[in-house]
Predict the structure.
Amino acid sequence: MKRWWLWIGLALISLLLVGVVYAQGGEVTKDDINRVAKQLYCPVCENTPLDVCETQACADWREQIGELLAAGYSDQEVINYFTERYGDRVRALPRQAGFALWVWILPVVGTLAGIGIMIQLFRRWMGRRTVATATIPVEPSPVRASSDLPEDYVARLERELREWE
Amino acid sequence: MAEEAVQPKTGLRVGRLLVWVVTFALLGLLGWGLVRQSQTRPESGLAPDFTLPIFSGYENEFTSGEVTLSQLRGRIVVVNFWASWCVECRREAEELEMVWRKYRDQGVVVLGVDYVDTESKARAYLEEFNITYPNGPDLRSRISDAYRITGVPETFIIDREGRIVLTKVGPFRPGELDQAIRDLLSQ
Amino acid sequence: MIPDVGYLAMVTALVGAVYATIASLYGFFKGEERWVNSARHATMTLAPLLGLSSLTLIYALVVGDFQLKYVATTSSRDMPLFLKVTALWGGQNGSLLFWSFLMASFTFIVMLRRWDEDRELLPHVIFVTAGTLVFFVGLTTFVANPFEKLSFIPPDGQGLNPLLRHPGMVAHPPTLYLGYVGFVIPYAFAMAALVTRRTDPHWIRVTRRWTLAAWLFLSLGLLLGGRWAYDVLGWGGYWAWDPVENAAFMPWLTGTAFLHSVMIQEKRGMLKVWNMVLIILTYGLVIFGTFITRSGVISSVHSFAQSAVGPLFFSFIAVTAVASVATLLRRLDDLKSENRLDALLSREAAFLLNNMLFITLTFSVFIGTISPMVSELVTGEKITVGPPWFDRVTAPQFALLLALMGIAPLMAWRKTAAQRLGRSLWWPFLIAVVVVIGLFLRGVHSWGALLGFLLVTFVGVTTLWEYVRGVIARRRARGEPWLVAFWRLAGRNRRRYGGYIVHLGVVCMALGIIGTEFFQQDTEGTLRPGESLEIGGFRTVYRTLRTYPGPGDLIVTEATVEIYQGDQLLKTVHPKREFYQNTQQTMTIPALRSTMAEDVYVLLTGWESGGATATFRVYINPLVNWLWLGGLIFVVGTLVAGWPDFEAERRMVMPRLTIAPQQV
């Protein structure tokens, strides 16, 4: 399961790099900075991603990202640097460790529990059959007849169609 | 059919219990969050202890490179939260440095806690105002969280027994900090 | 003077609501109908009273009565008229009053209906609705009073937060509130049904239109919020998984599950307990959502300022939650239904799966929303759960739901022969595979996107075909022209075909979402006049920059940018920055060039020395307009599904008939 998302993540990141960024070997562009800033949140504002935050402080932090990238830090290393200094609240994606691990685990557990409950219910409910349910389901199918069908036939058909809504 | 009657009963009891447990757990969580969020900055009582790493070059007597508040018992401590991007902080910067130089041998320590800042910009700020008192980054905002500040600048003055005696939200007016320290020293 | 009248009206409404709550309860316990009737009349007075109160507040806002604290904080002389009116819901206190008015209006309509069939439900419905109003009007009377006066009269007000000064402010909050408030009615009926032990589907039938209306408004509110964010907030997107956004999304999810699962209860008598749980959950999430937005417990860009409202809201949530759970558990035995499933391949099973997915989705979103708060409580440090997490966790579930949406309408109740199903599904699936192969060959290599396109095509084709073959049948039977057949078919079977239209709308929205989620591009750069940024095949050329004053304290800096594709000039746009001097707030307003294929979204993010250089950020949002188109189709479909059709409903006979004929 993890690998799957790795591919999607990579695909996403590579797609987001499209656009002419004349990277002249080592020069850090605004797009590079945004690429990292997108994965970070403003340490001070209320729930604002770092690449769109407009305060002076955020501009300073984006500048810092630029400096780190120019110094050879990788994207992940920049994120780690920020996390060390400003705390986990700065990461858009919770870590898969510590308390944040619960954030990842719980939805999976919830889904599995849901599936489990469903299976149980299905089993139980399919066990109980009522008497005389020998109904052959009437499927709404297109009427392949000529255009001069008797009116009441059509009305009856419509009524049955409605019953099967 | 009889067996079915027994199983659902205990299953149902457990189910009901579970529902109540979850309901109260969620409510409890919400209530706790509310309580926590309404806690304001400490204005009295024992000051929350912390360890502040210090920017190299600003250690003064704290040659270990960090200072722990509880080790400063017996001295008056001025804990000032600031940031280089904070415009208001500039209004009190000179006075803070002046107070440090004037009262340091009378047992007064000024500590600058740099809130959510970049080191290069912070150093530029410190150099601009010729600040020499110990300054360091509040890593992971732990100290700011402990003091529940809502912005910068904020200052807490702690007496010799480690209790908070003054809280200031916003920059000091000219002379205000000096007066406060003088009052404390005369007690 | 006039605001004093408003205050008086509000307090009178509070008294009336308290009376109605007590009288309805008393009337129920004593079995005396005149008390219940009195309570009903008292409840009906609340709407005009709160309406009057709101009107006086609007008057004060428009006229500029700045002695009222609320007016001083949300209005100002220089705001245009429509904004002054919207300031009614621009701040905490006014919006609470407005909410109360909307609730009272809905309750008024409910009180107006004929209660002959449901006499025993009446006292409880009154109790719940009037009780809720006691809370909200109590809030505005004691803790969050919009008529609070200052000790002096300021010369001017602060005005609305610049972020709110937009036509979106006209529609987004009211529709959202209508959605929220609308769900209280089905909840009240559900509680009434539980207490009086009338647990047949009657309460569902009675409230079906309310549920649909509430759900429609909630959907609209969410769509409008997204469009507003896109148009004005300048971050290139429409949904940020912000806690307050999630707070509106969660009741929508459970509300959608509820809409679907009531169909099972009506048709097969199953899931009685579950439907109760769903409506309680939906109502609970509505109140929870209101609580989050207003208490500041969870940090969000949307939050109102902190106030004493938080703890009171919490008490209300606690009381409501405990009361609902207790009532439900007490009456659990009454809700036993003949739950049976004849086959896995049946519409019942599909609906159950649908419900399960909606619930796991709600659960996931809930975890993501409260985790920041919980982490701070438990570890002392707050974490942020941002869009990357939500996308990753919800995408698979949404994908499954989408697939289900295509398959389920083809299944019959009780049992569908696998062969039959296969025969209906293989060729849409084939078409979808062909489309995907085509996309792959044209350069789309992201697995997630390809899967998305596969599902969108598949579901689009199956849903469209369901509609079209009905039209074909009609034409064959009646010889009607195409358009008439389309219209009449929907008209005669509104729920079914309205549903299909809604599903088609969802398909279009999914297309828009896939486009922007997987293929959005952006670039940022500083340009001198004449220079350009290139992205996605487009070239944006910076021409000029000018600054000019706007109304009031506004200063606008506007750039002129030309968008080229190749050598062809497509459009000249004007991205701008609005600066409000009084509050020192900036708004970055994007300029768009829109087609169904993509949006070119240009932002002015900075400039130097009067325009010698200007920094722009340009987003390319592929397929985004399918989202808005889909939203429109979605709304139309809901209207079709819910439009009253008295004749047909009288004729419609339930398979499991009860003794007395059911009236609408």
